[in-house]
Write a structure and sequence with these properties.
CATH topology of the domain at 271-345 and 433-511 in chain B: Rossmann fold
CATH topology of chain A: ABC transporter involved in vitamin B12 uptake, BtuC
CATH class of chain A: Mainly Alpha
Strand content of chain A: under 5%
Number of strands of chain A: 4
Largest sheet of chain A: 2 strands, antiparallel
Largest sheet of chain B: 6 strands, mixed
Helix content of chain B: 25-40%
Largest interface: A-B, 41 and 66 residues
Number of helices of chain B: 17
CATH superfamily of the domain at 271-345 and 433-511 in chain B: P-loop containing nucleotide triphosphate hydrolases
Shape of chain A: globular
Oligomer: heterodimer
CATH architecture of the domain at 271-345 and 433-511 in chain B: 3-Layer(aba) Sandwich
Number of strands of chain B: 24
Radius of gyration of chain B: 24 Å
Order of helices and strands of chain A: HHHHHHEHEEHHHHEHHH
Chain lengths: ~325, ~500
Amino acid sequence: MTQTTKPPATGGAAVATTERRGWFRTLDWRRYVIYIGFVVVFIFFAVLLGDQGFLSPNNLLNILRQSATITIIAVAMTYVIACAEIDLSVGSVAGLASVVTAMAVANWGVVPGVLAGLAVGVVVGSINGALVAGLGIPSFLVTLGMLGIAVGTAQWITDSAPQPILSYAYNLAFGSGNLGPFPGLVVWMAIFVAVGAIVLAKTRFGRQVLATGGNRMAAEFTGINTKRIKFEVLLISGVVAAFAGMLYAGRLQSGRFQWGAGDELSAIAAVILGGTSLFGGAGSVIGTLFGALLIALINNGLILAGLDASQQQVIRGAIIILAVALARKK
Amino acid sequence: MTDVKAAPAPVDETDVPAVEMRGISKAFDSNVVLTGVDFEVAQGEVHALAGGNGAGKSTLMKILQGVYTKDAGTIRINGREVNFSSIHDAKAAGIGMVFQEFSLVPSLTVAQNIFLTTEPLGQGIFIRDGEARDKAREVFQQMEVEIDPGARVSDLGTAYWQLTEIAKAMAQDARVLIMDEPSASLARHEAEQLFELVARLKAQGISIIYISHRMEEVYRIADRITILRDGRNLLTERLSDITPEQIVEGIVGEQIEGLAYQERDTSAEPDVLLEADGLTSGSRVQNVSFTLHRGEIIGLAGLMGSGRTELARCLFGIDRLESGEIRVHGQRIDVSDPRQAIKAHLALIPEDRRAQGLVLEHSVRDNLLLPLLKQIQRGPLLDDGAGNELAASLIKRFAVKVANPGRPVRLLSGGNQQKVVIAKWLGTEPEVLIMDEPTAGVDIGTKTEILTMIRNLAEEGKAVIVISSEYAELLAVSDRVLILREGSVQQELARNDIADEEYLQHAVQGV
């Protein structure tokens, strides 16, 4: 009847094995491996590094603070990956937004500065989204190109110079201040995680993102505007990355093109650690939060243990591979 | 057509059976799937294997292929006892599988696919593509089919994919071929070619295990049939000693009246629900016009490529209309995408449920609710309680067999998956339902349920368009049949004007 060529089966044997293992077990511990891993690593460091102040409230807040911007970027990245796309431009968008915000704050004041920073995200996210959804160019390529464009632009317009932010109000609101006992950064993080988790799990938009990532054709046949969904997740990712850049600017009281460099990889690692499928269709924002926290936890513990930066990288990489290997579907 | 009817069965009792499975039992945890099943295939025999959903056919075959290991029982291949612990063991013993969902890599050539992992090598490392092509050509010669081994698989039609699958098994010296619903994705003349091929393979002494729900082809090509029910042997008979009614009864238990046409009262001056006027799109839909009344079921019949599916896609806004218009209740509707069609209360049950109908990794519940999210939205959020209730009511209403709606829909049988697709759309309370091959790859029990469901929908005042390659099915439900040829409506027949399947087939073939 139809002339469309069928996609080849994903392998009868693989499917059969899943069926065998998951025959009556609807509760799959692999989905919770990130939480188990988090607890195990936490206890491990608590025992080992208790004397070095690992458990001090200050250190614990530090861990939260250090993971805040990555977590925020990763919340939006969860949507992108659950939708079976990727956004490699987030780190450099953060850098670009930090310098644009800093320059706009210096020239026109705080409110225009904030708007300018968000505008960077809207513009970059829209371009990414339009190219991916509209023209059907793979997001890997579009956002890889955008990574270069954004960081290059940030370097160009600033002549590679840091852009100081002298506005006390801006810095207070975006990263340097505290709300009661909590660092402002952590409050922002909590807001993004809460909104992100609820929207993904409890709204039509979230459900449509998962359906689009799970089987785009079936979603389209069901009346979901999958192009719009893809556009929207990339737009959101751009705007949220820009916001993270503004937090960098506020915390470090300056805009700099290097802020956020490499964050795309940390964010992707956090998302995948958190149990979101790299192939789309499944995603958990809370999982992402713990993925990001686990990475920050490992960084912190290794520093306290006195390892140098190169050793930290090696161990961090190994732990990420191990965790993902444990969490993968058999 | 040459006579490839069940040749005087070469079932020689003195021969050692090609496959002899005795007392096979298998349970998955507490779920017993097979209990002491015996299954035997003689050398050069075509042996049909039948049974409803969950009867254990696929499990039995997966044990034979080495995918699952048996809990009890013995397997002998050519008289030698074997214990398969992997697919490779089974392959080495000469068991070949023709996958229902094709296991080919579309971007590689036919020969590359056939010899994937068994490529002929030079100096132990370099693939000899030329030699592979020659060998593939030999296999095709043996099969007496013509396929260019150098052609890219993605450039070939579905029928050739399957032939390539068969060649792949043959190239690995398979002596027993398992074919699971091999004709499901084939048009009639392609199925003919397949049957002829089966006859030739049989003549070469190759044994074939043939799983199919289509009675006529089972009678046409098989020597014996084994029917499983609830994981046990029900019967094994020569086809010459058993009637189709007995087989169908064996598979479903009872209730088979669903397949017979039931006279429905369509006299009461029906309102026109949908009008299609001069629809044209691409080369497959040419100036198609028809009207559809409330409470009416029309069947679309036609050969492969006649434009049945394409017409459905146009109506639902997946393919763009170049000209013509669609009116619902006399109002012109714009169907430039499926969302518009859904707004106009149309629904499409697509032909490929796995690719187009379901998100396989998602739960039954999430799949059911996907088009219904608006109904369970409270403010900005979805109400999970309402969602669970709605899903449960759909599962009940359409008798979907699933213990836990939170389980991935991929774990369900084909028939139950199809029910999920239908249920998901009927939840939107459509007025016009377009069903493209609604019973493809579904067992007879579920098929009957689906046909009954279609009649009930019409009784409720909905209008249904049914596309099917199975004439018996079209005749069972349709009030009118439109015959499409080369994208146009060739003929419109009232159900009462169609004497039988043969008549319809002649009309479709245009002879």
